[in-house]
Design a protein that fits this description.
Distance between the termini: 100 Å
Order of helices and strands: HHEEH
Largest sheet: 2 strands, antiparallel
Strand content: 5-15%
Structural class: mainly alpha
Length: 139
């Protein structure tokens, strides 16, 4: 019975030997081949250095722009909060939900629009009862 690890019968070992033979034939011969190999390595090294410098530049640029981006987002959030505060403090506030059914080419879908807020019952307003100023009931 033959050994499966024997290099003569194993296809992987045979392929490795063929690659070795091709690599021996492709080795640079003489001064011209050595010069080509040296030039290829120098070109590869230069490309690696340029890539590393560009990567470092973009990393530092990203770090430098982070405070600017944070400032812009902070200002946008402050503006949104101010707009929301104006909406809440505008006095009469209500909640209304509207549904609009729209039919598209592929079928139907429903669109919803919600307006939220507070309301005051007109009877309380007429009597001068403000629910915010009323003391809690003690039963």
């Amino acid at each position: 019975m033959s050994d499966p690890h024997d290099p003569r019968h194993n296809p992987a070992w045979q392929a490795a030997r063929q690659w070795q033979a091709r690599a021996r034939q492709a080795r640079p011969q003489g001064l011209l081949g050595s010069l080509k190999m040296l030039l290829a390595w120098l070109l590869f090294g230069a490309m690696m250095i340029v890539a590393m410098v560009l990567g470092l530049f973009f990393l530092l640029l990203g770090w430098a722009l982070m405070p600017l981006l944070r400032y812009r987002l902070k200002k946008r959030m402050e503006k949104m909060r101010a707009d929301q505060a104006e909406d809440i403090g505008s006095g009469f506030h209500y909640r209304e939900t509207r549904y609009r059914e729209t039919r598209g080419a592929d079928g139907s879908y429903r669109e919803q629009q919600v307006l939220e807020g507070d309301y005051v019952v007109k009877g309380d307003e007429a009597r001068g009862d403000d629910p915010a100023q009323r003391e809690p009931r003690r039963d």
